[in-house]
Specification:
Elements: E1 10-11, E2 34-35, E3 37-43, E4 57-63, E5 68-73, E6 79-82, E7 88-92, E8 94-95, E9 101-102, E10 105-111, E11 114-119, E12 124-129, E13 134-139, E14 146-149, E15 155-158, E16 163-168, E17 174-180, E18 193-197, E19 203-207, E20 212-217, E21 222-226, H1 232-250, E22 263-264, E23 269-272, H2 279-282, E24 285-290, E25 296-300, E26 310-313, E27 316-320, E28 327-331
Parallel strand pairs: 1-21, 2-25, 8-9
Antiparallel strand pairs: 3-28, 4-5, 5-6, 6-7, 10-11, 11-12, 12-13, 14-15, 15-16, 16-17, 18-19, 19-20, 20-21, 22-23, 23-24, 24-25, 26-27, 27-28
């Protein structure tokens, strides 16, 4: 892994969705959203003895190596490993404030032989081995909204304490910093931030409240803004979306242009979930956004407000349903 002094990370000239390498004709944007194909229901929480360990899934991670889902349950607060048949494989942690216990996990990450949880309820990070035991845990200085595990075992977290994004070791020490902290909100508001990492080490941070997406490149120390709010498609939605979000807020929901999630599909494409004008009727869309060209493929669920947490393992997409906590699998349609 490359290390860089923190002061190398400065914001490059702002881009409004199209990078300098974009083709002359501009980004390609789907005129309409194609429906995702429903595959199956993975798991439905109920009161039967076989599944009373799951009450309502919040965080969701799919491990492509094993084909297992890792779920944080809202009530037990534990992280649950479930196989493709919906059977419980293993439990990581339990509710509480002591060693190995979880108050509220804002994010989980899985890589190789480790499962890592950010516990904002107790202001700590827990690192579990794949047998369910705790390898280590350590205190953190602030709420972290999301994290990724790097190949060497270090962690990328957002928002950082001194920088927008930071890399920390398994003792909590900062070993690198990406960008100025103010890029992702100087007031410390972190509920609408999400993180992903490309194979070429570029880190993508989504700020859903504006919405903005930052691409940090360790190869040259640059930080680039993809201002989703200024996209032509988003500009055309503004008045209607703002009115819908006010209605959602009055009903007790949050107010954000984007779901606070971003997932990598391939070398330059990420999945994000915007709030379309027909949010209350058809739910959120899913976009596959190429951060280098600004091109967007649009997809829809076709059911109102579906999706509490999603995970992309292209062409598969996993989501939990807001209404009853059911875990569902969808598939992206074949390329045209």
């Amino acid at each position: 892994m490359r290390l860089h002094p923190p002061n190398r990370w400065a914001l490059a000239p702002v881009l409004t969705c199209v990078a300098c390498s974009a083709p002359e004709e501009g980004p390609r944007v789907s005129a309409t959203a194609r429906p995702l194909e429903f595959v199956r229901e993975w798991l439905r929480p109920d009161l039967s003895p076989d599944t009373d360990w799951l009450t309502f899934p919040t965080n969701l991670v799919f491990d492509e190596e094993t084909g297992h889902l890792f779920i944080q349950d809202r009530d037990s607060r534990a992280i649950l490993e479930v196989d493709e048949s919906g059977e419980l494989v293993r439990v990581y942690g339990r509710a509480g404030e002591g060693p190995g216990e979880i108050g509220h996990a804002s994010a989980i990450a899985v890589r190789g032989d480790r499962v890592v949880a950010v516990d904002n309820g107790n202001l700590k990070i827990l690192v579990f081995r794949r047998d369910g035991t705790v390898e280590t845990e350590f205190r953190i200085p602030r709420f972290y909204r999301d994290l990724e595990i790097l190949e060497d075992g270090s962690l990328v977290v957002v928002p950082g304490n001194e920088h927008a994004v930071e890399i920390i070791d398994l003792e909590g020490r900062v070993i690198d910093g990406f960008g100025e902290r103010e890029l992702l909100g100087a007031a410390g508001y972190s509920a609408d931030l999400a993180l992903a990492r490309f194979d070429d080490e570029r880190v993508v941070a989504l700020r859903g409240h504006r919405p903005e997406l930052y691409v940090f490149d360790p190869a040259d120390g640059s930080a680039r803004l993809v201002d989703l709010y200024e996209m032509p498609l988003m500009r055309g939605w503004r008045d209607e979306v703002a009115a819908q979000l006010r209605r959602v807020q009055r009903a007790g929901g949050g107010r954000s242009w984007m779901s606070a999630e971003v997932h990598v599909r391939d070398g330059s494409t990420v999945m994000i979930s915007p709030a379309p004008p027909d949010l209350m009727t058809n739910g959120r869309e899913v976009w596959l956004l190429d951060v280098d060209t600004g091109s967007v493929e649009r997809f829809s669920y076709g059911e109102p407000l579906i999706g509490y947490s999603t995970w992309l393992a292209y062409p598969r997409l996993f989501t939990t349903h807001v209404r009853d906590g059911t875990i569902l699998e969808y598939r992206f349609p074949e390329q045209r």
